[in-house]
Amino acid sequence: MTPVLETRYLTIRFGGQVAVDSVSLAFHAGTTTAIVGPNGAGKTTFLNLISGQLRPSAGDVFLRGKRITAMATPARARLGLGRAFQLTNLFPDLTVLENVRLAVQARAGAGLGFFHAADTRTDLTERAQTWLSETRLSARAHNRVTALSHGDQRKLEVAMMLALEPEVFMFDEPTAGMSVDEVPMVLDLIAAIAASRDKTVLLIEHKMDVVRRLADRVVVLHQGALVADGEPAEVVASAIVQEAYLGIRPANG
Q1: Among 214, 240, 248, 246, which residue's Cα sits nearest to residue 31?
Q2: Is 242 exposed, middle or buried (0-12, 13-18, 19+ CB in 10 A)?
Q3: Partner of 30 at 20 to 30 A CA spacing, among 87, 93, 195, 250?
Q4: Domains of the chain, with CATH numbers?
Q5: What does the buried/exposed string (b/e) look like for 39-65 if buried means 16 or more CB atoms within 10 Å of the residue's CB?
Q6: Residue 75 to residues 78, 79, 82, 87: CA-CA distances in angstroms?
Q7: Tens digits of per-residue pLDDT, 90-131?
């Protein structure tokens, strides 16, 4: 079966430093993969290579068997790659509804003229409002992004990615900076995406309880290289992860 997403020998160098070192991985529909590793392991850089923010020094990225290595980020998004960033990536001077509506319009191929389309495409507004309801942001619909808490900005970013209806969802520490009461909603959303079984989820996460809850597969990067790949319990218990990720050295003998 052809993977939905695949990397082959994906590599990037910054000067003399290898940030991602010949990583080959395949991701299939209906799976949720957690990408873990210590700070500086290359996790975010790996997602940047997949989504097109960075161009590799070597290797390739494939989507449904098609080589997309040379494609720009917007083209990859149109093909079905969705990305939520470690730092929010929003339109700060627009309202919450306007932000989500832009994503809905992009998905519908209706262009980015928000106010022009608003006069004639109430269906797009209704669709945007549906995603706001899904992410519990309806009460904030007419607030500007600059007035939102960090947690609400993260939820808005998830709403925008949902509105694009991608085939592959990539989350970079989705609960970072959220209050304790905000975390469950975002985790529930990711779990619901995974439960659809026709989506592919990649998740960078430091919290092992989140990894255990959401992931059916864990891959570990260390100094840019792939060092472990398997079921969560097996990978977390492995000696290389205990040492490289958790800082626990195996006992002698």
Answers
A1: 214
A2: middle
A3: 87
A4: 1-71+200-253 (3.40.50.300)
A5: eebbbbbbbbbbbbebebeebbbbbee
A6: 5, 6, 11, 22
A7: 888 899 999 999 888 888 775 545 455 555 678 889 999 999
